[in-house]
Design a protein that fits this description.
The chain has 121 residues and is mainly alpha-helical. The chain has a domain at 2-61 and 96-119. It is built from 5 helices and no strands. It has helices at residues 2-5, 22-38, 43-60, 62-80, 99-119. Helix 2 packs parallel to helix 5 (99-119). The longest helix has 21 residues, at 99-119. The model has no long low-confidence stretch (mean pLDDT 79).
């Protein structure tokens, strides 16, 4: 993003799909901050950790599968769309993440949270 163009694309922080997973980074940072402030044995940490795992599983599992299905449907529409002068509406294909993209996002989230905690403690 920044390294290729020299400009920040703030939409990438909320878009779906791609490397790294911004959703995984966000929820991992949230869980890490709760662990720092409430303790890793707190109920709130347990809830945020569970929430984080559900979000990451959804990103790498369900949304990724939906993106693959969208790609297949788009190919079928391209092959069989027969309405001259009318363009078929494409489905969004980049919906989910690979497990690696989720893992890198989670590492970035935890690392950012740890860095924030150390510099503001």
């Amino acid at each position: 993003m920044f390294f290729r163009t020299g400009r920040w694309n703030l939409r990438r922080f909320v878009e779906t799909g791609g490397m790294p997973s911004s959703h995984a980074a966000s929820v991992a940072a949230l869980s890490t901050e709760v662990a720092f402030h409430q303790g890793a044995r707190s109920l709130l940490f347990g809830v945020t950790l569970y929430f984080s795992l559900v979000v990451m599983y959804d990103a790498a599992g369900l949304r990724r599968a939906a993106g693959r299905q969208a790609a297949v449907l788009n190919r079928l529409i391209d092959q069989h769309w027969e309405h001259p002068g009318q363009e078929a509406q494409k489905l969004m294909e980049l919906l989910g993440h690979t497990p690696l993209e989720v893992a890198v996002g989670a590492i970035i989230g935890v690392g950012t949270s740890v860095l924030w905690h150390w510099t503001h403690a």
